[in-house]
Amino acid sequence: MSEANPPKSAPLSAATTSTSEAADGAHKSADAPASTDKTRKPRVAVLFGGRSSEHAVSCVTAAGVLSAIDRCKYDVVPIGIAKSGQWVLAGGDPSSWSLSTGRLPEVEAAERTVSLAEIGGSHQLMVTAPNEVPVELGSVDVVFPLLHGPFGEDGTIQGLLELSDTRYVGAGVLASAVGMDKHYMKVIFADAGLDVGPYIAVTDRQWTNDPQAVRDSVAALGFPVFVKPARAGSSMGISKVDSLDQLDAAIVQARQHDLKLVIEAGITGREIECAVLEGRNGSGPRTSMPGEVVVTDLDHAFYDFTAKYVQDNAASLSCPADLPADAAQRVRELAAMAFEAVGAEGLSRVDFFYTPAGELIINEINTMPGFTPKSMYPQMWAASGLDYPELIDELLQLALNRKTGLR
Ligand SMILES: Nc1ncnc2c1ncn2[C@@H]1O[C@H](COP(=O)(O)OP(=O)(O)O)[C@@H](O)[C@H]1O
Ligand SMILES: [Mg+2]
Fold first, then answer.
1. Of the residues 148, 153, 185, 226, which should be mutated to test ligand 1's pocket, given the most ligand atoms within 8 Å of the CB?
2. Which of the listed residues 23, 252, 358, 381 has the most CB atoms within 10 Å of its CB?
3. Do 230 and 102 share a structural domain?
4. Domain identity same for 29 and 153
5. Cut 0.85: pTM above it
6. How far is CA 262 from the centre of its chain?
7. Do 298 and 379 share a domain, yes or no?
8. Does some domain include residue 404?
9. Which of 58, 101, 79, 74 minimizes the C-alpha distance to 1?
10. Number of H helices, E strands in the chain
11. What's the DSSP call for residue 332?
C-alpha cells in the first residue's frame, strides 16, 4: 500500500532533536511548528488498535479517520498496535477496520514490526524483521494516537512520544493519565469546583484485605450503584447493581479490566455531552453545542457496550440537545472548566448528568473520545459548523503547531 511505504530516509523534520539540543535538558522545547520543510507534505502516523479492551473500537475509529484524512495535504502512515503490544504496518484499506465486516476488527501481530529508533540523535520509525536489514520509515511530523483505554489514552504512549520529541494529537501525559482514571479525574474536578456525584474508590488491597468494609461503604452510598473499573472505557466491565447481593459478582467482573475500581451512586438524569477543542494561538478552549445520549432500547439498564457499538438503534444521539439556553451555556462553560482542570490539549469530550432539579453533575472526561464519523464527538462539531474532515485537519494543525518538551 502506498501509505505503508513512504520514501526511505526522508528528511528530518523540526520535530526531531539533535544530541546537542538534547543537552538543554528539561526546558528544551521546539517553538517552531513541525514540518518546516515545505517541499513535502507533513507525515502523519495514525496509531490504532492497542493493548486495551477497547482495541476494536480504536480500529473502527481508525477506519473513519483513514477514510477522511486529506491525502492531498498529509502523507499517512497507518500503524496498528496488536493486542500483544507489537506495532505493525497496517493495510491501507480503511474498510478492513470498520464494523461493517460483521466482526470486531483486530490488528494481527506480524513478524515485521515498527518501532521508534534513535538514529544519529533523532528518533525515527523503523521497520524490523528477523534476519532483515532494518528499514527507515523516515521522520514522522505528527502522530495521531487513535487509541482508547490503558496503554494508549492513559499517558503511556504520550510519554513515549514525549521522550522522542515527537508531536502528537491530543492530551499530554498528565491529562491523559488523569482522564483515564475515574477516581483521580473526580478529585481534580471537585477541586476545580465541578459537581461530582457520591462515589468510593476501591483498591486491590482494600478489596483483598477487607471486602466487608468495601460492602459496608457501598451500602452507605445507597442503591443502585454503578461498579466500574477505574481505568477502562466503552462501558467495559461496568455493571448497574440494584442490591447488595449482586455486588460481589459486579466487583469480580470489573476487576477483570482493572484491579482498581470506582463505585458510584446511581444518578437520575439525562446524559448530556459536550465536545471541546483546544483554542488556537493561546485562546481558551472552544466548545460545541451540547448533545444528548438517549438509551431507547429498554433492555439496556444504561449506555452499555452493546448499546454503544453493537446493536443498531439501541441508543440515539441527538445534537443539539433539547435544553434551555441557559443550561446549554452552562454545559459549555463546565466542559471548558473540566478541560482546563485536567490540563487537556487538542480534544476532549466531557459528559454530564442533567438532573430533574437542573443540576449538572460531571460524569467523565474522555481525552480520546470515540471518533468514528457517527460518534458523538464529531457529530457535535458537525452540528456546530466543523465537519469530520475539517475536524481531523484542525486537530493535526493544533498538534503540528505546538511546542515539544515542557509547555
Ligand atoms: N453514576 C451513574 N449514574 C447513572 N448512570 C451511570 C453512572 N455511571 C455510569 N452510568 C451509565 O453507564 C455509562 C458508562 O459509564 P461511564 O462512566 O461513562 O464509563 P465509560 O468510560 O466506559 O464510558 C454511562 O454512559 C451511563 O449510561
Ligand atoms: Mg462514558
1. 226
2. 381
3. no
4. yes
5. yes
6. 19
7. yes
8. no
9. 79
10. 12, 17
11. H
Asked whether 165 and 192 are in contact (CB, 8 A), the reply is no
DSSP 8-state code for residue 228: E
Domain presence at residue 174:
no
Same domain as 145, residue 51: yes
Atom of ligand 1 nearest to the CA of 236: 22
Cell of 284: 481558551
84-97 burial string, b = 16+ CB within 10 Å, else e?
A: eebbbbbbeebeeb
Residue (of 359, 361, 362, 367) closest to 342 by Cα position: 367
pLDDT per position as a tens digit, 105-140: 889 888 889 987 767 666 688 888 888 888 888 888
Q: Residue 356's CB: how many other CB atoms inside 10 A? A: 8
Q: Are 138 and 218 in a shared domain?
A: no
Cell (9 digits) for 187: 478529585
Domain span holding position 162: 2-169
CA–centroid distance for 132 within its chain = 35
Residue 332 sits in a domain whose CATH number is 3.30.470.20
Q: Of 244, 265, 286, which one is at a domain's C-terminal end?
A: 265
The DSSP output letter for 359 is -
Q: Which of 218, 317, 363, 377 to mutate to test the pocket of ligand 1 (most atoms within 8 A of CB)?
A: 363
**CA 340 and chain centroid, separation:** 16
Same domain, 204 and 154: no
Question: Any bridge partners for residue 89, and if so which?
Answer: 79
Cβ atoms of residues 15 and 161 within 8 Å: no
CATH of the domain at 18: 3.40.50.20
SS3 state of residue 171: coil
Ligand nearest to the CA of 377: 2
Cα(349) to centroid(ligand 1), Å: 14
Q: What digits encode the pLDDT tens for the residues 198-236?
A: 999 999 999 999 999 999 999 999 999 999 999 988 888
